Amino acid sequence: MTDLAATQDTDETPALCELCTLDCIRKGERIEIISVDDQHARVQALRFGMAEGACVECVTRVPAGPLVIKSGRQEIAVGRALAKRISVRRLSS
Amino acid sequence: MSEAHCHTAAGTAARPGCETIVLAGNPNVGKSVVFNALTGTYVDVSNFPGTTVELTRGRVGEHDVVDTPGVYGVSSFNDEETVARDIILNGDIVINVVDAVHLERDLFLTLQLIDMGKRMVVALNMADEARRRGLAVDRDLLEDLLGVPVVETVAVEGKGFEDLTSAIPRARMGHADVDLETDIVEMAARVGTRAEALMVLEGDEYVSERHGIEPGFHRDEIYLRRRNRVNDVCGHVISETTQGASFSAKLSHAMMHPLTGVPMLFALLAFMYVVIGQWVAGNLVGFLEGDVMLQHFVPFVQGLVGRVFAPGSRVYTVLAGEFGVLTMTPTYLIAVILPLVTAFYLLLSLLEDTGYLPRIAALTDRSLTSMGLNGRAVIPLILGLGCITMGTLTTRILGSKRERFIATALMAIAVPCSAQIAVIAALMSKTSPGYAAGYLLVLVGIFVALGTALNKIVPGQSTDLLIDLPSLRLPRLDNVVRKSGLKVWGFMKEVTMFFLLGAAFISILQVTGVLDGIVNVARPLTVGWLGLPPQAAAAFVMGFVRRDFGAAGFFAMHLSQAQLLVAMITITLFVPCIASTMVVLKERGWGYTLGLFASSIGLAFLLGGIIARVLRIA
């Protein structure tokens, strides 16, 4: 488990974890939102600027708590449980 | 189109004048300040959702103006959106207030309003702040791209309102989504207006049902296209001149990270304790209550009343006795409640204006999750510290019935309101710090235990945190003073009535001997179980009227430190005051309210007795 997490953090992102859920994204990583598995959250996220297909950046991870995502100049806090239901693609930056 | 509304509005000029202007915008964009400046009447100017649920009306020129709750879009996700949606659908002209710093978020609503075909004007608020943050917004280009007048305003400084007022006659329909045009025109032919047509196409169940039409299922598509248009517009009109605001970004992140955020939160609480608990409750209240009221005011009033009614007579007791309407009531109202509630609201307004609250929500999300809530619940909970009534009303912003259930119960049982904190702080400031800390510790423990238990018991599913973080700002002092002044005034007006009635009620119980009866009957509970003097029963009876009133009942009892701790914990957990009971009843229903009463009384006496045993006073 920890080994896997360690490999995810390297610069050369292995093909294995190019696709994953938002909760395993680290601070500073840029990602593309693939899908949001929650009807209400999807609409609300869209209004905030975090649409499916949008490229956003993870600015902070509150340990065991929410992730803060930046889309344009708008910052959004996403609860950990919800982050698990958002699939994303890592973008090499 | 507007002629239909004309005849109803009494006193409205007949012709061009009777159009209604609706003020719409996201939460925290300064909408209420704009409303206030346009109409001249004061409304509650607040920094987060939940406080503008009630409608505010005013007039500008010959137009009626209606304020709406801050929403991120028009649909039916919660009460506020439903209210805003109906006002917008019925309005003739929309003034859409947008925050120049958060255009990516705010223009989503703007484009939705444009797609609805509303005649509108955009107030580009806080453009000065955007410039300070290194963001330039091209107003002319924005006007061209949207197709509606765009006026720059600085609401809190009162700039740009003349331009805004003079732009109202130029309000017009903007450039709507072209791909939607055919569908909208077709649907509008069936439902009457473009606005309602768009609601149906976006799958709004209420509006569709109103017209007996199946709600559309293309919402995601329409929203996504709108989002792309917003991004496109933003890409064109915003230019970043400098990478500004790095300090505020760092501060913002520090507020949310436990390592730095928890100490900051504790520092804030400690600061609030020093200001409210020590300066105001200790020094100011001590002086006002002890030196001014009890030494001068009360003997003076007793002397006056004693000239007309013999001391010891029934009327004398009601007017100037232990619970006297003219003695005890003004003493507590002026010397205890007023200074403390003022201090509390001032601090709360300062906090609201800075944008710190959403960061506290992110910081506490993890802990609140284990109580079946998410970070958003700190907003009603903190407001509950001001007034449980206000907090209970604000539970509307929570995402599910389950969360509203838990948050309401937590507040009614384990969160003392500011007036009660006032009296408790004044009483506990006489004890050694250990007892004050003990009070806080027990209360936090009960709060966590109760939340965790409710999370296990209450059925259903809670929602997850998904909030936007508004930019951090320095609070404007005039705004803070005005806002808290208004709240204190409203609070005192309500409290005074309850205190007067409550004092009269208790005094009547006293002179008729009923109070002695209750005191005697309750003796096993008060003396035997809680280790308090028998008169404590009177304080609990007073606690039914108001919580702070109940706590105030312990003032004259000369309790030991341990007895004070037991009394304060028991009265805190005891039933909510009449006003908040009414709100709980209205929001949650009879079954819930009865259950709440039973559990708060049960918990209060159970824990009070246990603590009395731990402290060996019973």
Structure description:
- The complex is a heterodimer of chains A (93) and B (618).
- Chain A is 23% helix and 35% strand.
- Chain A is α+β, with helices and mostly antiparallel strands.
- Chain A has a single domain, classed as SH3 type barrels.
- Chain A has a six-stranded antiparallel β-sheet.
- Chain A is globular.
- In chain A, 42% of the residues are buried.
- Chain B has 618 residues and is of the alpha/beta class.
- Chain B has two domains: 3-240, 3-Layer(aba) Sandwich (Rossmann fold); 258-614, no CATH class.
- Chain B contains 29 helices and nine strands.
- Chain B is elongated, with a radius of gyration of 28 Å.
- The interface between A and B is large, with 35 and 43 residues.
What order do the helices and strands come in, and which of them pair?
The complex is a heterodimer of chains A (93) and B (618).
Chain A: H1 2-8, E1 19-21, E2 30-36, H2 39-48, E3 55-61, E4 67-71, E5 74-78, H3 80-83, E6 86-91
Antiparallel strand pairs in A: 1-6, 2-3, 2-6, 3-4, 4-5
Chain B: H1 3-6, E1 20-25, H2 31-39, E2 56-60, E3 63-67, H3 79-90, E4 93-99, H4 103-115, E5 119-125, H5 127-132, E6 135-137, H6 139-146, E7 150-153, H7 161-167, H8 181-191, H9 194-201, H10 205-211, H11 219-237, E8 238-240, H12 246-256, H13 258-308, H14 314-320, H15 328-354, H16 356-369, H17 378-386, H18 388-394, H19 401-414, H20 418-428, H21 433-457, E9 466-469, H22 477-511, H23 514-521, H24 523-529, H25 536-545, H26 547-552, H27 561-573, H28 578-588, H29 590-614
Parallel strand pairs in B: 1-3, 1-4, 4-5, 5-7
Antiparallel strand pairs in B: 2-3, 6-8
